Amino acid sequence: MEIDHVAIVVKDxxxxxxxxxxxxxxxxxxxxxxxxxxxEAVGLEAGGSFVELLRPLDEASPIAAFLGDAATKLHHTxxxxxxxxxxxxxxxxxxxxxxxxxxxxxxxxxxxxxLHPKATDGVLIELCQPIR
Length: 132
Ligand code: CO
What we know:
globular, eight-stranded mixed beta sheet, binds cobalt (II) ion, 2,3-Dihydroxybiphenyl 1,2-Dioxygenase, domain 1, alpha+beta
């Protein structure tokens, strides 16, 4: 599996974008609201992968609680798969606990699903099937 994106939660998206684009030289590829996850997501090109900045839309967003008082926090790593439903079925058969039994729509039109962090030693892992 290859990395699709690494997602970082930020409190101040404009400040983070200045850092990543103007200072570090990343190019913005997408920026959108993902309402059901309570975030605004910005994808920055990093070779064949992306750095994805996530801003909580409001205090009710699950990632607002995750961020707490921090200015920024690494949230998850997403691995690209060709057939997300097949991969989920395979992992489930292996006894891996899943947050999402079936794929849902994420940023950039991707189909995504999260594995339960209890099954991955505390690291939140997302499977991601690009629809581009
Ligand atoms: Co993601």
